[in-house]
Fold this sequence. Notes:
Number of strands: 19
Helix content: 40-55%
Bound molecules: 5'-O-[(L-methionyl)-sulphamoyl]adenosine
Number of helices: 18
CATH architecture of one domain: Orthogonal Bundle
CATH class of one domain: Mainly Alpha
Structural class: alpha/beta
CATH topology of one domain: Isoleucyl-tRNA Synthetase, Domain 1
Radius of gyration: 26 Å
CATH superfamily of one domain: Isoleucyl-tRNA Synthetase, Domain 1
Distance between the termini: 63 Å
Amino acid sequence: MSDKRPFYVTTPIYYVNDVPHVGHAYTSLACDAIARFKRLDGYDVHFLTGTDEHGQKIEKSSAAAGMGPQAYADKVSETFRSLVGTMGFSPDGFIRTTEARHRAACQALWEKLKAAGDIYEGKYAGWYAVRDEAFYAESETEKGPDGARRATASGAEVEWVEEPSYFFRLSAWGERLLAYYEANPRFIAPESRRNEVLSFVRSGLQDLSVSRTSFKWGVPVPGDPKHVMYVWLDALTNYITECGYPDTTHRLARFWPADLHVVGKDIIRFHTVYWPAFLMAAGVAPPRRVYAHGWWTNEGQKISKSLGNAIDPVALVGEYGLDQVRYFLLREVPFGADGDFNRRALIGRINSDLANAYGNLCQRTLSIVAKNCNGRVPARGPATEADEALLGRARSLLATLRDEFEEQALHRALIGLWETIADANRYVDAQAPWALAKTDPARRDTVLWVLMDAIRRVTLLVQPFMPGSTARILDQLGVPADKRDFAAFDVELPAGRELPTPSGVFPRHIEPKPAG
Ligand code: MSP
């Protein structure tokens, strides 16, 4: 077993009722950047994603598509799997809830909850939103002008359901949940979400219906197959299925409790109330942290199937480039806040942050080196105050980024990196290495070495966000493949190393002229 520290990070598992849009890509992208950062920082990372394939919503969509639910799930799940490649995600596992290992884990968890006395048989009579796969109290719903009742928080239509059901004794867990939140102040983030959950739990919890009898597409309840498990009990269990539950040795012992579940703000309650209560009732430790990010709108509008304005991440990557899209999504909006997707902003960032700032810094530094230093890493002489200022800033970045990743402040990490890029560009202007070529070649070499080292450090840290482009920049800087993790952050470039011919990595985006 590795002596590295384990780190387990998960995305939510995606419903297979529809193909992925940019909102889904976003959750996974954030996890991918975090997983890559931790790997580079020497952790033994397990990064899990996958698809959520049971429940009434999937049963209904498959019927509407004229397909059986399994064939339908197989087909749509594949689009999420192929998005992994398109977006450059690096998961260590891809789970599907229709796998046999998952059914076994759900049933084992059920038996534990039953044996603990936390599950009893009854009858559910209340409101249910198929779109959210959620039960709502009447007070959480309102009637619209069209006469339809909807969940106030999500806008999903609710229907009245009355059927035999098993219940989980959630009402008995309120105090223990509050004690867990109290003892683990980092469990729910950001702070505003934590407050929202605290007040929900303090207001008193109702027992939760955890089985359905009016449809079939789910994991059968052990010993009572008329019932299928409530899809959220089924779905949340995926995080421990992956670890081999109910076998508590091996991966469960190593990676559980999960270090981080990243979720959208709409599903925070499931992850921070139901999930820890199920786990505690089953004698399993709750996860360490749940971070809820915000929602994207499209040019000011809510993204929805009915509006037909979902943004296809595959098309976006085709049009603007993979790393360009990855950078924009994580830079544009503070992680945790809501944000608006608009193309002008995307193009603006591609041209200013990537082409003009980062790309230009690399390109002008490396082309002067190619022209003046025989295409080799120059030798450094004594450092001036200006050299030390830039190098000092670049050296401090790793510690700063570690703190920011600890808080999932991905946008702040990028802001800090780009401030250093701006400093470095000002340094090039002030030092004017092209002018030193004739007057003081030794000083010119020092300036170029300082620039190359600053670019190297910044680029090592940009890797989790833009793996492809940074690999090309590191190639051009002559950084060997085994010197690209953070353990090599302080391994400086040796003078004299031969460099490949530089070429631009971040082209400007020019909008094609409308036809005609
Ligand atoms: N299947 C459940 C999760 C079960 S986890 C045990 C689910 N699936 S989902 O496909 O509807 O949503 C998956 C993720 O995508 C959620 O984190 C959700 O917040 C995110 N997003 C869906 N639309 C989004 C936006 N418009 N913007 C940002 N994220 C969005 O919920």
